[in-house]
């Protein structure tokens, strides 16, 4: 009866392991390895597109705003040319409409006006193609360009009919597009008292004076940048004769109540910025392909990395599953022999790991199975089952360390040593944390742990941190409680340096004074007020049994462990002043390994 029960137990254990354990383990490990990679790749792709789109919007809004200010400055310079004529007391004395003449001869007026216009044209001929001045008192129009300076009584021009304007009391201030890569600025001179028109100025300006700012706005080679009026008509486009943005869409965008901004569509991003008091608009269109192409490189790299890691993970999963299950299958074959009442089987050369332990226990069980068939045999089988399940659920604490080392190796192979340095620091921190052989370590190990922590902080704060670590050679082999320095250094960031705008300095000095080790950790942070400093010293001065809880792994914890291990005369001592930084002195006996043990 006992043999029958043993056979049933063995049959229930053997069949599930033999038929499906290996494949289930393979499938589980492949899923664990591949699924996170796939999710991370998809998330990285989506995040990259969103980040790139946000960066495109932010940078282009800034460029458009800067371009508008530049346009306004240029137009202010052009307006200054107009004002220099309209405010000339010789042409418009006291704004009463009369020009100074030389004893009734108009020749002086004509010559003075032509010379004045030529002087202004020569000073601004890079930007101005033509200057025209209308004097109502002379009923004449004076024109100067690169060819010559003339005067005429024909007051009608393509931009404005000065004869008609002179008969009104209207004030003109126009910006007109000429359609030949130039535009005109038209201003009238009105008497202050009754607004009567006394004259006016027309400046024909070359659009190319704005090319430099438009080149700056056109930061993407496939983008469209042009100048338009409020009705959506293109006034100037130095790049491409064809504009993909239709006039109605542009007019609707410019007519919005919010002024400058952008619109997003399936085709791309349309940015618009008013300038010159809303008389012109700077418009930029970026096709959506720019964002997708920019994200495609990241996507390709992510896919390549994910596929490579997936292949490695699948191969490793299959290999690990095979190596892990092979001794179990060997064990099940031995159990099969016992199932047919062959108690003479024995597993030769058992492994040295947990499975080997299981095999050795199985051999021990076989030696006792005849006398313990009803009790011990069943207990051993159940114990093996529990052990196998425990092995399936076991997590190797060194896996993360090895994975970080692999990532650092890849970074180094791709010529990114900075990533390798920071990954190595994180890896060493983790390895140091899980290495729990003893509560005491060497000062050298504890300094290396603090150095790795500071390297990770430098990754966060870049060049803001200046670190100095000095240690006497005869101190490095002395023993110190594990995790004594890093919590104090961490306090420097959280309580001393956070929010400080200028350079951060942290120094660690280790020196031997007689038969004691003094470790000074100093920062140039905000310091500690007198009341808070007194409270900290009160807590640190308490006896170990009476120390208050709630400080976590902070100074109170470190202080308590030092006092428990070495005595009440040792521990932490704090000195500080507001805006003068903080110094924490750690005092321990100078004991090496043999002495402490």
From TrEMBL:
Its EC number is 2.7.13.3. Its main location: membrane. It is found in: Cell membrane. CDD domains: HAMP (cd06225). The chain crosses the membrane at residues 301-323. Keywords: Cell membrane, Kinase, Membrane, Phosphoprotein, Transferase, Transmembrane, Transmembrane helix, Two-component regulatory system. Residues 322-374 form the HAMP domain. It is an enzyme of class 2 (transferase). It is a multi-pass membrane protein. PROSITE patterns: HAMP (PS50885). It catalyses: ATP + protein L-histidine = ADP + protein N-phospho-L-histidine. This is histidine kinase.
